[in-house]
Amino acid sequence: MVNCAPKTSGGWYFSRAEIENNSPSRRDGIDLKKESELRQSYCSLIQDLGMRLGAPQLTIATAVIFCHRFYLYQSHAKNDWRTIATACLFHAAKVEDTPISLNKVVTAAYEMIYRKDTDAAQQIRQKDVLDKQKSLVILGERMLLANIGFDFNVQHPYRPLVRALNKFEILEKNVRQVAWNYVNDWLRTTLCLQYKPHYIAAGSLYIAAKIHNVKLPSGKDYAWWNEFDVTPKQLNAVVQEMTDILGYKRKSLPTCPTEKPAETSLPKKKGDSSSPESCVLSRPGSLTRNSSNDSDGQLEMINQNHPSSCNPDGKQVYVAAEIKAEVQARGPDASESVADSEKSHKGHGEGQFRAYSCL
């Protein structure tokens, strides 16, 4: 097993440029578009597999983040997403105190991956086939642990979102559900590797409220974003990226403040933790199966047509301008700098996250 993955001083948060330009998959000839498709594939598998096994959404979300973190340091060309995704869900279930037996995870994953094969259900119940798949998932879990540095501290936007919805007494079911759906949608992107969970919660609530014409509380001495401990500049940055993902026209949004892309690369590790053989949930006699051609059911990138997060009325969300207007109305003290805020948010969490129920 290789050495644990080192992290930067910012914890598990990187700029979009760092994530895209320093991807190990890029060095192996996998372009950004293909890597995005593979990201959607493993997120879909984790979500579907978790739901089939009755795992809570919190466990599923933790598994997705584990998988994102793994591929920060490892290439898709050397580590098949199906095995890694299965291993991430298996491990996340233990971390979130919702354990699922290895036999159940492997059997369900195999049947889902090879659902077009009518013999798959019978094959996976053969002892030699099951044992081989279990050994691959265990290997995948060991690789995961090495690459995330045994860091199981994962924070999610669910808690700050629910707390704000209740505090603001937002009872409109559509707003609550759309904001919740957005939080789930962002899991399929790199936002959780770029922004802290309370930033994502704030952006999700803001867009959901604007879509349904719900005014968030704000006054001379208080603005709603204070509940999320985020500055207007930080909020504007995350919302700009969210609206880009959703496909809103950029011409309706003023230019967001940007930072010069960091030139530092993701920290490198000594050695290579990719498996000695292609780490694939494989069928007997089918070790060279091409994952790119075997991903039926892959979901497209999140866009404005996504059923869980679309803008049903086709309304434009004039995000940046409205945030700016609210800040100006509150006076100069509201525009706290990003640097000042970040001093109080070093690291990536204030402690181990605890499970709780969804809306």
Automatic annotation (TrEMBL):
It comes from the Eukaryota. This is Cyclin T protein. It comes from Dioscorea alata (Purple yam).
